[in-house]
Amino acid sequence: MSNTTTDTTPKSGDDQDLGAAGSQLSTAPREEPPHLPALGVIGWARWFWRQLTSMRVALLLLLLLSLAAIPGSLIPQTGIDETKVADFREQHETLAPLYDKLGLFNVYSSVWFSAIYILLFISLIGCIVPRTWQFVGQLRGRPPGAPRRLTRLPAHTTWRTGAEPEQVREAALALLKKRRFRAHVTGDAVAAEKGYLREVGNLLFHIALIVMLIAFAWGQLFKSEGNKLIVEGDGFSNTLTQYDDFKSGNLFTNDDLVPFSFDVEEFTGTYERTGPNKGTPRTYETELTYTEGADGEEKRALVKVNKPLEIGDSKVYLVSHGYAPVVTVRDGKGKIVFQDAVPLLPLDANVTSSGVVKVLDGYRNAEGKKEQLGFNAFFVPTFGGSASGTMLSQFPALDYPVLALSAYHGDLKADSGIPQSVYQMDKTKMKEFKDADGELFKKLLTPGETMTLPNGAGSVTFEKDIREWAGFQVVQEPGGGWALGGAVAAIAGLAGSLFIQRRRVWVRAVRGADGVTVVEMAGLGRSESAKVPEELGDLAGILYDQAPGAPEPDGAAAPETPDPTDTDTEAGPAEGAEQQ
């Protein structure tokens, strides 16, 4: 018996000798160079299709898609934040027109990004379909029979035994099946193959990529995203008119909105009081009462940061928080013309806030003429006192709330037909209220205090009731579950294709010229399958115990007693184990 050997040196006629046994251990198509002089239109089209559906091109397109997504992360996008896009245009007058031509303000809807996306999709489909049919054919068939000369395979071993050939083949068949090989007896040899899950993993990875691409496209086309600021005690219904701002995909319609509504019962925020993290939020949560559909049962939920309320395909996220002081405005006769909580926008981490109080209807000045009132509002939840020198909050909680108001009267141009921000005031037709020194009339108020306007124009009261508001983002993006499932399947498939090795083993047992049975074993794996010689040596050792070696014929040199598990590497490890 000779030692198990591995030989990676190509030999003339290897492919012819291996025959079907040397067929590919995967479903990857063979690449053949085009015969340029003989190529016509159909030939060039066939060659181009083969290149497009090759794994090399698919990986290249996947890399290009990743690189193409980088501008979408670095450059403001129209579909995400139009305000930042407008600011970028103002600050970069030279770059902005170039970016417009290249579609960099709307990367994911640009022609070039869509072209890469579609080509990758076609490449994956064209790669997977033929490989899947080929793999199904391999599963339905049997492992190929042994080649004529097993000694030409990279890993092989042989010995003589006194057992009958049929006994050796039966023992080899049982051994290989026990090791979970697909094995059968063909002619004078046993053919076995193992590691089909490698190709399953490979195909699963590619199919998962297609699922992820479809899920991404579906989500982009039918997605919706809206924001809504809601004061404690107020509610929201999931209709288009209820949103402060709303964005959606190209195929989204109003009928796709999930029907639900909710009321904000209470917002709770707690903060670190001491230490280096003083002022850092510890708890942001909102208690909601919601219903699904028009006649749904009323339910309660607690929405926290990164813990959204899920209703059907919609998710309600808590994304922001601020204060809404309750302000009461009276005219010169003491009639209430405005009383409501006024949401103010935070300017810093300590919730220093600003906004506008607008009185649009019902107010008459001291002369009885209709006018509109406007007040610039500046609010701090924790005032540092006059010694601080500035109107800045010292802490985000309501420890010492102060409201600063400056008063105007006139026309707010609310009826001009031009949309206005509720947090800003158009002063082009407004006049300032003047104090005794002829300066803009303004005052600092604590809860419960009143500011009396000059010349009997009325008064403004900062009520003791200070409400809080919560900002919600309602996201509806179908296909998210499919994308997640595709990602998990892709990881599982990639792990299978990397760690599972497909290989073949043959055991031939024939009677020699002297009547003694000669056993030959050989293994074949993919080029990276360095474990084939080790596994073959292990199998040979077990089979050798069942069919021990016989003495050499008379006159032959008596070699050392071999160990079938030894591996003699003649040309390095079993690289090139698959001769194709």
Largest sheet: 7 strands, mixed
Distance between the termini: 28 Å
Structural class: alpha+beta
Tally of DSSP β-strands? 24
Q: How many separate helices? A: 10
The residue fraction in helices comes out at 25-40%
Strand order of the largest sheet: 3-4-22-23-2-1-24
Radius of gyration: 39 Å
Shape: elongated
Beta percentage is 25-35%
Protein name: Cytochrome c biogenesis protein
Region (Disordered): 1-32, 540-580
Biased composition (Low complexity): 547-560
Subcellular location: Membrane
Quickly list its features.
580 residues; alpha+beta; TATA-Binding Protein; 3 domains; 10 helices
SSE layout and pairing:
Layout: E1 2-6, H1 14-18, H2 41-52, H3 55-74, H4 82-91, H5 95-102, H6 111-140, E2 155-161, H7 165-178, E3 182-186, E4 189-194, H8 196-222, E5 224-231, E6 235-237, E7 245-248, E8 260-271, E9 281-292, E10 299-304, E11 309-311, E12 314-330, E13 336-341, E14 345-346, E15 353-359, E16 372-380, E17 402-410, E18 430-432, E19 442-445, E20 450-452, E21 459-476, H9 480-499, E22 503-511, E23 517-525, H10 532-546, E24 567-569
Parallel strand pairs: 1-24
Antiparallel strand pairs: 1-2, 2-23, 3-4, 4-22, 5-7, 5-21, 6-8, 8-9, 9-10, 11-12, 12-13, 12-21, 14-15, 15-16, 16-17, 17-18, 17-19, 20-21, 22-23
Biased composition (Low complexity): 547-560
Keywords: Cytochrome c-type biogenesis, Membrane, Transmembrane, Transmembrane helix
Protein name: Cytochrome c biogenesis protein
